[in-house]
Amino acid sequence: MQAVVLHQFGSVDHLRLQSVADPRPGPGEVLLRVRACGVCYHDVINRRGSLPRTSVPAILGHEVAGEVVEVGPGVHDWKIGDRAATLQRMSCGVCSACTSGRTSLCRRDARFFGEELPGGYAGLMVAPVGGIGRVPDGIPWTVAATVCCTAGTAVHVVRTRGRIRRGETVLVTGASGGVGLQVVQLARLDGARVIAVTSNPAKVAALYNAGAHEVVAAPGLEFAAGVRRVTDGDGAQVAIEIVGSATFGQTLKAMAPGGRVIVVGNLETGTIDLNPGLVIVKELEILGAYATTQGELEEALQLTCARKLTPFVTDVLPLGDAARAHVRLENREVAGRLVLCPDA
Ligand SMILES: [Zn+2]
Ligand SMILES: [Zn+2]
What we know:
The chain has helices at 41-48, 96-99, 141-161, 178-189, 204-210, 224-230, 248-253, 276-281, 294-305, 322-330, and strands at residues 2-6, 15-19, 29-39, 63-71, 83-86, 124-128, 132-134, 169-172, 193-198, 214-217, 236-241, 255-263, 285-288, 313-318, 337-341. It has 344 residues and is an alpha/beta fold. Residues 40, 42, 62-63, 149 line the site of one zinc ion.
């Protein structure tokens, strides 16, 4: 098969399209013919060498949709021709985290596609059945590939972790990315007043179109004053922090007393200076949010199928354009998601 192989961590030049041996499914696994694979900022972080569980050579990509073309031993509930999409990571299904529904906290099987498990920048990919969900017929492959990590993450962040209530004011950083656009839509659908922050003034219109009530364009990422201005000085009651270290300080300053900060992204993988006094006097709650459960993926696929969430697939590219896709993400040129299609 053809695959984009990362030979060394670092620059995009180490991503190269080449022929590799076809993988075969083992026990409990299926072989997917990859129809589409989203290119996520997580892949950029992985390519740079910031994710310790990846070893090179590696095939990146955790946002995969495809059809089952071979079924491994012991797999009974999947058959050839079934449509599948991947979760970001595996879970064991039996530990206390899994049985309480928090599968993204499972430590017994934390394998991540594109890290310990080969990813979807390829014509074929093996997937353990615990890491895939069923894709309804009405959803195109390019959309199916991106739903888990965009709309699925939005469900996890807005509903499961954020518990956003009708009428709350919700600040979203990194709002014009693939996750951000889904978070904006879902928070609005659930009755919140949405304030979107973007570093790129060219993306303002896309954010209003996605349903933001207010957009704060802050090329220098100084947005706290703008958020206070559009909230009559009150600040935001909830923040969905998709950017992480680069915006966290401004986000804390933009919070109303009693606010909740849900941290789901850390694009530059940096650390922060945190003044605990701010957290104390405002009684802020800071919550993490990670990955997507099987149930949340199904919920996201249903919301997408019912057109309550609109997917934003910006461009469909051939596998050989993987390096170019990384450059476009790093240059913050993309509103939405880029998708690689082996058939493109
Ligand atoms: Zn992703
Ligand atoms: Zn588990």
